[in-house]
Specification:
Elements (H helix, E strand, L loop, with lengths): L3 H13 L4 H20 L6 E6 L3 H15 L3 E6 L9 H11 L4 E3 L13 E5 L13 H10 L4 E5 L21 E5 L10 H4 L1 E5 L6 H4 L3 H7 L14 E5 L7 H13 L3 E7 L3 H7 L4 E5 L9 H11 L3 E4 L7 H16 L4 E3 L18 E3 L3 H8 L7 H15 L2 E4 L4 E4 L4 E4 L11 H16 L2 H21 L6 H13 L1 H9 L1
Parallel strand pairs: 1-2, 1-4, 2-3, 4-5, 5-6, 6-7, 8-9, 8-11, 9-10, 11-12, 12-13, 13-14
Antiparallel strand pairs: 14-15, 15-16
Helix pairs in contact: 1-8, 2-3, 3-4, 8-16, 9-15, 9-17, 15-16, 15-17, 16-17, 16-18
Length: 503
Amino acid sequence: MITTTDMKVLETNSVALGIPLNNLMEAAGKSIADFVDSQLKGKRGLRIVVMVGKGGNGGDGLVAARYLSSIGYMVEVLPAYPSSEVEHPDALFNLKILKKLDSVKIHEPGRLDVLENKDVIIDALLGTGVRGVLRSPLKELVDKANEVEAILKIAADTPSGLNPDTGEVHGTAFKAHYTVTFHDLKPGLLKNREYTGEIIVANIGIPSEAEKYVGPGDVIHRVPPRPRDAHKGSSGRVLVIAGSKRYVGAAYLAAQAPLLAGVDLSFLVVPEAIRGIAAGFSPDVITLSYPGDYLSVDAVSLITKYVEELKPHAIAIGPGLGSESETLEAVKKLTGYIVERKIPLVLDADALKTVKLGVDRFNGMVVLTPHRGEFRNITNYTITENLGEALQLVETAAKNLNAVVLLKAPVDIISNGEKTRLNKTGNPYMAVGGTGDVLTGLVTGLIPQVKNVFHAACIAAYLNGLAGDYLLKTNKQVSASNILKVLPLVKSKPLEIHRRVYD
């Protein structure tokens, strides 16, 4: 079962794999036509009307009309809008085809009388992405379609007017005998059978790789655009606890990346000994400090005051902290404090030394970002080259830790114990220092926007690797600082960059 957002992700990831959306539309329309034909049992002279909207769902209906006409049915198309208002390029493509055919009659938009005395009515007005109350001219078409008698009423993907995620109907919705939905069930379809009728799931050729691997669709459809009425902090505040007298750069990288991921405010908490150096890296990061050369138990109370005051939407701990025994003790105390307050938390680098499978169990809001050696230290599991075995080990660890585990490897594995995704972006040159710190910052910065720690971890792994691959493709040095430079481009145009790098 998938949500409408999941479906959009799969469609875009399919495009990234080289499958044009029109191929999926063709398969969707044919699946409707094949089902209608199977129900009519070859009575080819029957009259069919297809109500079509101006989006992709309308395109599915246009394809269905073409197929049904080609096997002998009397097919008419009733558009809701003039062709000049058709928004989806593939729907417009299929409309132009139908206009060249004598076998399909296309009516003027909104003619309610066309729905009378028809044997079959197909609802292809709205797709799964549309919400809320039906408005004119859609409401009038749906009301009329519900009023007239027909042997068969079919909804394409979801009945128009029904929310496919929740099953809610505001006012009116198309009442179908059957709903032919694409690829997988949407949860709302099971909650209002009065409108959906019997549900048929049609395979439209979306490859399993579109779901298995993180892709540009995850970025485009899960990271929301910045609202026009945005104000400082509305896209998130994060706090990064990092750095020591020995390691300064890691703290900067981990704190700068959230800003490039899209948050408004990034606070970096470092030892007083390096505050001036850390603050000098970037004026965009707000640098705070605690006394000393490294994180100690004495600093915990001050850091918790920062948390109470700043109310961050996500926190990261680890990059560059060092592994002093007192530092690890402080990390343990801070982790417990943050988990208790249900603030999403990312643990990386030295902070991972405080985590042990069989001892620790989190609250589902913690992301761990180990490489294979760190994963072995946490779990005593050794990751081999067998991807299937590695996947099972990561899933088991994530489930028992009740956390998201992002295993950094040639193929990244991201799991929360229930869902698991793979990420193939990235290259061996990213083994240089600092790229993991950027990843930590990306996960932290995406959490307030995506509002889901699992999806944030998946998208961060993909973007970090894509940025590294883009640098390699364009003959630039692969380094953590250069990844920061190209992240805005990669995040804003993931599909375009993906095609440029991998096609």
